[in-house]
Every structure is written in C-alpha cells, then in structure tokens.
Design a protein that fits this description.
The protein is α+β, with helices and mostly antiparallel strands. Helix content is 21%, strand content 32%. The chain has 12 helices and 39 strands. β26 and β27 form a beta hairpin. α3 crosses α11 and α6 crosses α7. The longest helix has 27 residues. The chain is globular, with a radius of gyration of 26 Å.
C-alpha cells in the first residue's frame, strides 16, 4: 500500500508538472494569425504622406471584411477556450449576477413604474402598479423584442397625463433607433413606428405630440457613413412620420451635429440646444402659449454648456459654466433671457455642480474629489439642508415632478452594491427602499483614495479597491481603468464584474485623470487637443504609482478602457509597452487621423482636434494615434481588443486596423487577439448573457497572461460547492 501511494504521488506530480508545462507552452506559443492583406493606400496631410494599408477593413459591408472577422474570431475563441478556468470565472459571474435588481419608482398618470431584473434576464423589465394596489403588472418586456435578446429598450417618455407612451428600441446595439407609440392603459400600439431616429430624446408637449431628433439617412453604410446635420422634428399623435414638422436644423445656417430639445414641465416653453461638438451648446427658447412665437436666442454661441434647470412662470433657472468653470445656477426672465440679465442664484464653488429638481426643491449635487455631496435649496435660493448620505460614494437620482413629496435616489461605491433610498423632501429623512441581496460581503473589502503626481506635477486622485488584508507585495493582479475625456467623470460605483475580480485577489484602481469633468471645465480642457498627452501621462503615472507602492508590478498590471478609454489604452501601450503585462482596449478610437470621417465622429473635435485643422494639429495627432505608432520588433503587452460589428458610435474599423497592425508587428510571443461581438454595438443594451461571456474572457485572458495556471485561491474558495 505504501509503494502504491508513493507511485500514485509520483504520477500525480508528474501529471501536474506536465500540465503546467503544457499551460506554459500554450501561453508562449506564437499565435498563427490570419493573413491580413495590405493595399497600397495613402493620404497626404500638409505634404506628409501617411500610409493606410488596412483601409479596406473600413468597409463593414464587404464580404472580405466579413471573412476577416470570422477568421479572427476563430483564432481568438480558439485561444480563449484553452484557458482552463475560463468557465469557472463565467460560473462565478453568473452566480453573483443572479440577484433581483429593482429600480426606483416613478409616477406617470395613475401608475407607479419601475424596472426589475430577476437576476439573469438579458434586459430589465418595466413593471407598474396602480395607486395603492401592490399587484405588479408587466408594462414592457424588452426580452420579448428579439429571440437573441439583442434588441434593447432605449428611451421612454410619457405624455403629460401618462395616457400615451413613446419608447425607442435599438437593434443589434445600433445608435439608429425606432420609436413605438402605445396607449399606456391598454399597451396597444396606436400608430405607425417612427424610423431612422438617432441621438434623440422624446419631449412631450402636453398629450398632443413630442419633439425628437434625427439625421437624413446617409448614403452608403448606415453603420459607418458620416452623419453631420441633426434635425429637430415635432410628431403630432395620429399623423404619419412623413408629415412631421421640421422645427430646426433644415438650413445651412441651422446646421449642427447635435440638436436636443426639452419642454418645460408646465408646457409653457420649448428650449433647444444646438451643438457642433460634444462640448458647448447654443440655447434658444420659444413660447409655446403663443401660436406665432419665434425662437429667441439666450446664447447664440457654443462657448459654454448651459441648460434649463426649471422655470417658475417666466422665471428661468439655468445651469451654466459660462464664466463659471465649475458651474453655477442663474435666474433670468424669459422676456430678456440673455447673459447680461442673469442673476446668480447658486454661486459657483470650488466643486463641480450638477443640479436636479423635484418636490418643489432644487438639489445641488457636488463632486468633492469625485465623491458625492448634495445640498437642498428652495426656489428662493435658501439652503434647506445638506442631505445626510449613507456613506462615501456616488448618489444618482434625487429628481421628480413638482408634486412629488417623496423622491428616490441610489447610492453605491466600488464595494457597496447599489441601494435605493426614499427621500422625504420636507423632513430630509432617507430610508432604504430596496437593498439588493447580493452574494457579496462589502465588509471584506476596502477602497482607498490616494493622490499622486503626474509628469508635470499635477496632483491626480485615484481610488484603489481590494480585499482587506491584501499583501502589498507587488504580485497582485491589478486592473487600472480610466476614461479621460469629454468632461465625463468617473465616480465610485459598484460592478458585479469588478466584485468577482476583487474576490479573486485582484486590485481595481480608477484614477480621475484630466480630460474628465471631476474638477470642472478647466480639468476637462487640460486634456483636450494639444494637451491630450496630459491624459496619457496621468494614466502612466497612475500605473507607476501602483508599482512604486507595491500594489502590483508590471508583470501583474493590466490597463483597461473603452471608447475614448480605448484610445487611452492604445496610446499608453504604444508609448509605454513596458509598463503593463496586459492591455484591454474596448471599442476604442484608435485612428486619430480619420476618426472624424465616420458617423458622428466629427462631433468629437472639441476634445481631439482634426488632422485637417493645421499642420501642427496633424503632427500632434499622428504622434499619439495608436494605429500610427505601432512599431516592428517591439514587445507589446498581451492584448485583447474588443469591439462589436454593429458599433456605429466608434466604428469597428478602428479596432480592426489596430489589431492588424499589432499582429503584423508583434514579434515577441505575447498574443494580440481581437474579440468581435456579432449583432452588438458600442455597449448600451448589451444582453446580460453576452456581458458575462465578455467579462469571463477578459478576466481569463488577463490572469492567464499574468502567469496564473489556476485561479487565485481567493476565487476558488468562493466557487466551492
């Protein structure tokens, strides 16, 4: 028996060593990438010729591109299937994801509406109850919109009395939408579907009709062709879309890339917000109580972001960063609404302000080092109270109609699942409305905010989250995630996927780099155009901080970002390929010389500038454009590029061309793979099942290329049984 046990032990050890050797062999093997042909294509910018050999991949309708996508996916999924714990990650994600999620209610007509997901439904379902009756009724179930769950609910808007509902749907993740109009009581469709709608809300005028926006259908591919002139329409209920009235945007003088509209709660005024880029808007107002009234300009330039907060009769409350980079609220009479007549209502502070209204109060939501602080004001400008929040994190919601006495908000941070609270506007008391039952114990985790110095000495905040007791020994698998653009702020929020990552002993770090909105317009502008390199420097410095302070090391560091964050990852990995072991660019803007020629890309010029602006701007863009800075013979990190074949926001050609360049030039064994989701867009409305699969692949690829042959022990303990 002794000899038998010894023999079995030797065989087990031999088998284990053989398996580890096989795993190592699999990881270090040179992937046989599909041969991506090159075509002699080039553009000339200010007497400089720039080659573009993979431009043929920009044709998303080409059979050749379709074949290339299929071949790349075959290689990618063949590689991912070899990761031994890929299914373990997927199983844990599925288990943790499977809890009931209920959104805060909102009242329309006689009904209270709320979204609910029983756990693993691909799309959340909209339910309602009537009056005090607690019997739930399904109002809209997006899971029935398509068999694959790839058609999602976009916007939803009710008429004044709640009797009619208009909702938009996205098919395959596209930004092009359809609007369906139903009788809210019977849920029956009452007229033809509106088609070819894009980047649009729906703002009702009473019960008569609503305003919406769209572009003329482009020639060529609707997924990649340029859309440049937005138009505002009014749809009257009971009429054909062909007879919808063009309100604004039909002339060369009215040409703007984006036009949105809103009607005041009292149906008195229509406000429109024409924009030429993602930052800065003009503002016009029209009196809807007068049949022949014209639009009056409040602002006829795009030097600020200015929006209506509310109105009391003819008194307008506007939020603006005009001469107030951190935003203030002003009042003005609609009869003389231009800036020289503005009166400060809530003055600018050192913290960025985002206002909301409800229950006859105004709520000033401030970001204090990327964390929420909320103050309640009455309409005379008197401070009622600072709202006592459940903790340090992010508050969203706190809004409603004037007659609502109870408002709802959600609170979360990186270690606390989102919880809904009911807020009494008179007493200021918050009570838990819905607390999710998640198989995750926040008490085992911690988040720490640190401040580090970037290359030019700028102080940048970063929140680092991990399991309590984690040893700072430089060996922790770490994801460094950021965005850095378009005035978008990354505030603490809970993610099921990140919870699974931390369970496995991973660290999740989020720096609030320049280009975002965490410190107002100045912080945003410091990461735009000729200062865009600041964004990459901030991100690189964050990685260096984590390494210098032994949270991780280059061998265990992954960088991750999507869209503009995908650009961030692409630029960082080409500038500092030694900094990280893994790079995860998702739906990235990666060709900075041609981004503005696709769909609505020209609207991003405020942040980026374009290659046609000047020789200096062209040279600056080319110097960091990820596609144009892949060099032969460089050891780039293991890279998993992710995109969707129906992404018409950041067209997949960016990712296709970047993958082709990296695969052609990567000579040192680290895999360069591209995972292309079919019937998927930029991310919004992605089915839960697909999201789980994506994260399983991303986490599996990351850990596998950090050298983990098995899952870290912390994760294995969570998956026992």
């Amino acid at each position: 028996m002794k000899n038998l046990i010894a023999t079995l032990t030797i065989l087990t050890l031999f088998s284990s060593c053989k398996n580890e050797q096989e795993l190592k062999k699999n990881k270090n093997q040179i992937v046989n990438y599909p041969i991506t042909k090159t075509i002699d294509t080039a553009d000339t910018y200010f007497d400089t010729e720039v080659k573009d050999p993979y431009r043929w991949l920009e044709d998303d309708r080409s059979p050749e591109t379709e074949t290339w996508v299929a071949e790349e996916n075959k290689i990618t999924f063949g590689y991912l299937e070899k990761i031994p714990y890929r299914n373990q990650i997927k199983d844990r994600l599925t288990t943790l994801w499977n809890y009931e999620k209920i959104g805060a209610p909102f009242k329309e007509g006689d009904y209270n509406y709320f979204y609910k997901n029983n756990g693993l439904q691909n799309q959340s379902v909209l339910y309602r109850t009537k009056g005090d009756d607690s019997t739930e009724e399904v109002f809209l179930d997006p899971n029935t919109f398509s068999t694959e769950g790839t058609t999602s609910l976009g916007g939803l808007s009710f008429s004044k009395d709640g009797s009619i509902a208009a909702y938009s749907i996205s098919e395959g993740g596209s930004d092009w939408r359809k609007i369906i109009i139903i009788n809210a009581e019977t849920k029956q469709v009452i007229e033809d579907t509106l088609v070819d709608v894009k980047f649009s809300g729906m703002s009702w005028k009473g019960n008569e009709g609503f305003y919406y926006s769209s572009y003329d259908k482009p020639k060529g591919s609707e997924l990649s062709a340029k859309t440049d002139q937005h138009k505002l329409y009014y749809h009257k209920i009971g009429t054909k879309q062909s007879s919808d009235k063009l309100i604004f945007g039909g002339t060369p003088l009215e040409k703007h890339r984006y036009i949105s509209a809103s009607v005041t709660e009292d149906d008195h005024y229509l406000l429109i917000y024409p924009r030429t880029s993602t930052s800065g808007n003009k503002l016009y107002i029209k009196d809807l109580t007068k049949s022949n009234s014209r639009f009056v300009a409040i602002l006829d330039h795009t030097d600020s972001d200015t929006h209506l907060v509310d109105n009391i009769g003819s008194t307008l409350f506007l939020s603006t960063n005009l001469n107030a980079p951190n935003i203030k609220i002003v009042t003005v009479d609609a009869s003389n609404p231009t800036p020289e007549h503005w009166v400060d209502f809530i003055r600018e502070t050192e913290n960025v302000l985002t206002p909301s209204t409800g229950g006859n109060f105004i709520f000033a939501h401030y970001m204090v080092n990327a964390v929420s602080q909320v103050k309640q004001y009455d309409y005379n400008g008197k401070l009622v109270r600072e709202i006592e929040l459940p903790g340090i994190g992010t508050v969203s919601g706190i809004s409603g109609k004037k007659e609502n006495e109870t408002l709802y908000y959600s609170f979360s941070n990186y270690t606390t699942p989102s919880t809904s609270y009911a807020f009494n506007t008179e007493s200021g008391a918050s009570t838990v409305y819905v607390k999710p039952k998640v198989d995750f114990d926040p008490n085992q985790y911690e988040s720490k905010q640190v401040f580090y110095k970037s290359k030019d000495g700028t102080k940048v905040p970063m929140i680092i989250s991990y399991k309590k007791g984690t040893a700072l020994n430089g060996k922790n698998p770490t994801i460094l995630y950021a965005y850095g653009g378009f005035n978008i702020s990354l505030t603490p929020s809970f993610s099921i996927a990140n919870a699974v990552w931390m369970e496995a002993g991973g660290i999740y770090a989020v720096p609030n780099i320049r280009g975002g909105g965490e410190y107002g317009k100045a912080w945003h502008d410091a990461g735009t155009k000729m200062q865009k390199q600041n964004v990459f420097d901030d991100f690189i410095a964050a990685g260096e901080y984590l390494i210098e302070n032994n949270y991780t090391s280059s061998k265990f560091l992954a960088i991750k970002g999507g869209s503009n964050g995908g650009l961030l990852v692409g630029a960082t990995m080409t500038q500092r390929p030694d900094l990280m072991q893994v790079a995860l660019p998702a739906v990235g803007v990666l060709d900075m010389l041609r981004y503005h020629t696709f769909t609505a890309g020209a609207g991003w010029a405020y942040d980026y500038g374009t290659a046609e602006d000047s020789k200096e701007m062209f040279e600056y863009l080319k110097a960091y454009s990820p596609i144009h800075n892949v060099k032969p013979g460089v050891k780039y990190p293991a890279t998993l590029i992710t995109t969707g074949d129906h992404d018409d926001r950041v067209v997949p050609a960016h990712s296709f061309k970047f993958a082709a360049e990296l695969q052609h030039n990567q000579k040192h064994g680290n895999p360069v793979l591209i995972r292309i989701e079919t019937d998927a867009g930029h991310g919004a409305g992605t089915p839960v099942s697909k999201t789980i699969e994506q994260y399983a692949d991303i986490f599996g690829f990351t850990l596998y290329n950090m050298g983990f042959n098995t899952l870290p022990e912390a994760h294995k303990e969570q998956t026992k049984g």
